[in-house]
Specification:
CATH class of the largest domain in chain C: Alpha Beta
CATH architecture of the largest domain in chain C: 3-Layer(aba) Sandwich
Strand content of chain C: 5-15%
Strand content of chain A: 5-15%
Oligomer: heterotrimer
CATH superfamily of the largest domain in chain C: Glutaredoxin
Largest sheet of chain A: 5 strands, mixed
Radius of gyration of chain C: 19 Å
Number of domains of chain A: 5
Largest interface: A-C, 51 and 38 residues
Number of helices of chain C: 6
Shape of chain C: globular
Structural class of chain A: alpha/beta
CATH architecture of the largest domain in chain A: 3-Layer(aba) Sandwich
Order of helices and strands of chain C: HHHHEHEEEH
Helix content of chain C: 55-70%
CATH superfamily of the largest domain in chain A: NADH-ubiquinone oxidoreductase 51kDa subunit
Number of strands of chain C: 4
Chains: A alpha/beta, B alpha+beta, C alpha+beta
CATH topology of the largest domain in chain A: Rossmann fold
Chain lengths: 591, 119, 174
């Protein structure tokens, strides 16, 4: 029997059935049941997974009209208007962005660093001054001694936001104590952790707050010159920052005798050229000096011998951006937020399989659960939570059992993860932990500068083992080899990159060892990610024989005649997934 | 910059200018133009808004930009404030939504409920 | 077209012939023609009075400086985790399939280079890629193919109008 049209319905089984029943009932009444076929797309296919949040959807063929958010009544309307009278119902069309109200992040946000970001015009210095901008610098220069500024910072408990969490006041006091006619302050804007873009947001949204923080640091340590090191991957941030520096110069907030005092300070922007290791402070300073950005041994620390061998204070963007507010509102105010050892707020970049991705600022001590569920809105498509990766490619993962862990420097370290600069990547049950580990190791291996042998060679060996596990050729003993290699890379490397590179793998093995074992011993990837360990098949009853998959298959692995069910030959199939992508009725399954 | 007093004067001047801009215009439209906004098409949205206002010969609407508002998922983000009403935030404002947004909210004064980001 | 020596001198002068700015000089010079030749490196070494080996060692260290010829359009696809978990691999494969080259290579016709970049900080709209200077977010395999098609159409149109302009110029001479 030939039909003049097909309607394919998808959604959660009960809802889809309800809509299907209503549609078929109406078609019956209209006498169309022999002209139009109604089908339900079922099963776990890439498309139906992502569509779950759009309610019940339907696609009408041959004209491919896509409806979404359907109720039984809406289905009846489609039958009458579209299928009988040929007038598609515009109001029910699928919109690329769902029209339902969007949720803003929760009230758990507390903004110190981001207080102006997204409200002021970053290209206007007046806009910043209207929000008390540069008042902290004025106060420090005209009413406070450097020692008094240090005292306020000490009370505040501010710690470095670049990841290591070193007390800021102590770092500044080292550079202050160093004796030299020339000193420098440097801002580390080489935010290289994948998924962590909070510094970009501050630089693009409120550049003057960072400039002001640096000027205050320069006053305290006794520097006259500063460098802003920003990665070249952030062209908009660099442009905004350069403009801000010019405006500050025009107002005499940078330059000679600021606020009529004998304090003079100016700033220069240096752009990186694509090397992750330059986020390491000694490598970063090499790069500013125009050299290969390779780390060197410490001590000497930058506070005694930094840029061009002179005492240098180096902090990251977020650390500096906190300083003006601390001076204006007091150390006690800042210390009232956070936990005993981790004070204030921290920005996090939430990404991955979570409903609301984006950038947030929350008081330290908030739990992982609160960030994932209250701020992030929960796991995407309400799938089960598996883990969250914090601290970027040098950090570790936090599994479900630690959901109630408070987020602060010490607690994260205690479970084998790290604060890092604030990356927060949520993973669900469809994320494969071997694949993720391979991924992070590939990153570390590529970014290793090659100076230390354990890091250069060890990361490559670890990567090769992970690749073979993903490819289905893992051997017994691989897990133990990874653990052993990881320990020697950590011990034998000079800088944070090498020391941290094995972290993701080690913490994933620690928490998800069974997944590694499933890959090696059972040749199964339960998350259905590792291509060598999965198979694509076509569900015969669902297949409408449109031949689209066979025509698009790059290796001709699909056979079948028009209007008959198609079959994939697993021997030829390269598991590229194009068939699943092009199938109009979601008949391609992954096993 | 010579003194705190001078800074204070600049601050007052800036606040005064903000107030005057508010009084002299019927609405303020702010487009988030961080990297994520631009990646999602904020430049096109900005151009479309300016074009739409020009087409309707509306001159008393202030259009400005800001950084990332932290709702990157919903970029392009546009904030609209009409008269002394509260400022509201819209998500996913692609170019094809601009005309309706200007028509209903900027001109008509009624927020387009279905595109609002809930606070 | 500006020659190698002139371009190198121009950018070095912009930075006051200061060898401390070597990284920035090389990066900016790289953006002129898409990559650096040994001629560039030699001229930079001469003007900045540093050994050629030092210039070469800096040039080879940074990923945004290329020592190989690059295509007319350079795609820099974000290879980092946040983009990966939201479907980056499918887009990655679609790009390789569409252009017929693996990552890290340039098409034979010199039109496209397919490179990766580290995080460009637009993770919430991932997967993300840059085509030359423009950033594109919320990529799917289809959208990636559409974007490539858009550039192809633009260069076809540019070629056609250049051809027409060429005919017109010839006609004018006759």
């Amino acid at each position: 029997m030939a039909y003049r049209a097909h309607v394919i319905i998808s959604g959660t089984p009960e809802q889809a059935q309800e809509v299907k029943a209503a549609l078929m009932g109406k078609l019956d009444t209209l006498g169309l049941n022999e002209e139009i076929e109604v089908r339900e797309a079922t099963g776990l296919t890439p498309r139906s997974v992502t569509m779950a949040s759009r309610g019940v959807e339907a696609v009408v063929y041959p004209e491919v009209v896509h409806y979404a958010g359907l109720t039984p009544a809406a289905a009846e309307l489609i039958a009458e208007e579209h299928l009988l009278k040929g007038r598609p119902v515009q109001d029910l069309f699928f919109e690329e962005h769902p029209a339902e109200p969007l949720d803003a992040p929760s009230a758990k946000e507390v903004r110190v660093v981001l207080r102006n970001v997204g409200t002021i015009n970053p290209e206007s210095i007046d806009d910043y001054i209207a929000e008390d901008g540069y008042a902290a610098l004025g106060k420090a220069l005209t009413e406070m001694t450097p020692a008094e500024v240090l005292e306020v910072l000490k009370t505040s408990g501010l710690r470095g936001r670049g990841g290591a969490g070193f007390p800021t006041w102590l770092k500044w006091s080292f550079a202050r104590a160093a004796v030299s006619d020339e000193k420098y302050v440097v801002c580390n804007g080489d935010e290289g952790d994948p998924g962590a873009f909070m510094n970009r947001r501050v630089l693009e949204g409120d550049p003057h707050a960072v400039i002001e923080g640096m000027a205050i640091a320069a006053y305290v340590v006794g520097a006259q010159e500063g460098y802003f090191y920003v990665r070249a991957e952030y062209p908009i941030a660099i442009r905004t920052l350069r403009l801000a520096i010019e405006q500050a110069r025009d107002y005499g907030l940078l330059g000679k005798n600021i606020f009529g005092t004998d304090f003079s300070f100016d700033l220069e922007v240096r752009m990186g050229a694509g090397a992750f290791v330059c986020g390491e402070e000694t490598a970063l300073m090499q790069s500013i000096e125009g050299k290969r950005g390779q780390p060197r041994t410490r001590p000497p620390f930058p506070a005694t011998s930094g840029l061009w061998g002179k005492p240098t204070n180096i902090n990251n963007v977020e650390t500096y951006a906190n300083v003006p507010q601390i001076l204006l509102q007091g150390g006690e105010w800042f210390a009232s937020m956070g936990t005993e050892k981790s004070k204030g707020t921290k920005t996090f970049a939430i990404a991955g399989k979570v409903k609301r991705t984006g950038l947030i600022e929350v008081p330290l001590g908030i739990t992982v659960r609160e960030i994932v569920y209250d701020v992030g809105g929960g796991v995407l498509d309400s799938r089960p939570f598996k883990a969250v990766q914090t601290g970027g490619p040098l950090g570790g993962c936090i599994p479900e059992k630690h959901l109630d862990l408070p987020v602060d420097y010490e607690s994260l370290a205690s479970v084998g993860s790290a604060m890092g600069s604030g990356g927060f990547i949520v993973m669900d049950d469809l994320t494969c932990m071997v694949d993720m580990a391979r991924f992070f190791m590939e990153f570390a291996q590529e970014e290793s500068c090659g100076k230390c042998v354990p890091c250069r060679v060890g990361t490559r060996q670890m990567l090769e083992i992970l690749e073979s596990i993903c490819a289905g050729t893992g051997k017994p003993g691989d897990i133990e080899a990874l653990e052993k290699l990881g320990a020697s890379v950590t011990q034998g490397s000079l800088c944070g990159l090498g020391q941290g590179a094995p972290n993701p793998v080690l913490s994933m093995i620690l928490n998800f060892r069974n997944e590694y074992e499933r890959h090696i011993y059972d040749h199964k990837c339960d998350a259905k990610v590792c291509r060598a360990l999965i198979e694509f098949t076509i569900d015969p009853p669902t297949c409408i024989g449109c031949t689209r998959c066979a025509r698009n298959c790059p290796v001709d692995a699909i056979a079948g005649k028009a209007r008959e069910a198609h079959v994939i030959d697993p021997e030829i199939c390269i598991r590229c997934g194009i068939c699943a992508e092009v199938c109009p009725v979601d008949a391609v399954f992954v096993e | 910059m010579k003194s705190l007093e001078e800074l204070q004067k600049i601050k007052e001047r800036a606040l005064e200018r903000r107030r005057l801009a508010g009084e002299g215009s019927r609405a303020r439209v702010v487009v988030a133009m961080g990297t994520c906004g631009i990646a999602a098409g904020a430049r096109d949205t900005m151009t479309a808004i300016l074009g739409e206002l020009e087409k309707r010969q509306i001159a008393d609407v202030v259009v400005t930009q800001t950084g990332c508002v932290g709702l990157c998922e919903y970029e392009p983000i546009v904030q609209v404030q009409v008269g002394d009403q509260d400022m509201v935030t819209y998500g996913n404002i692609d170019t094809d939504r601009v005309s309706t947004l200007v028509e209903e909210h900027v001109v008509g004064g009624e927020p387009v409920e279905k595109w609002l980001v809930r606070k | 077209m500006e020659d190698v020596i002139a371009a190198t001198n121009r950018i070095i002068d912009k930075y006051g012939a200061n060898s401390e700015s070597l990284v920035e000089i090389l990066r900016e010079l790289n953006d002129v023609g898409g990559y650096l030749t040994t001629e560039h490196l030699a001229q930079a070494a001469k003007r900045l009075r540093v050994p050629e080996s030092k210039v070469a060692s800096v040039a080879s260290f940074y990923s945004l400086i290329s020592l190989e010829p690059m295509g007319r359009h350079v795609i820099r696809f974000c290879q980092d985790a946040p983009c990966h978990v939201v479907g980056g691999r499918e887009v990655w494969e679609a790009l390789e399939h569409e252009l017929g080259i693996p990552f890290g290579e340039t098409t034979l016709d010199g039109e496209w280079s397919l490179m990766t970049t580290s995080c460009i900080g637009a993770c919430a709209v991932g997967p993300v890629m840059m085509v030359d200077e423009d950033i594109y977010g919320n990529l799917t395999p289809e959208r990636a193919r559409e974007i490539i098609a858009r550039y192809r159409t633009a260069s076809r149109q540019a070629a056609q109008s250049a051809e027409r302009a060429g005919f017109a110029a010839q006609g004018g001479q006759e």
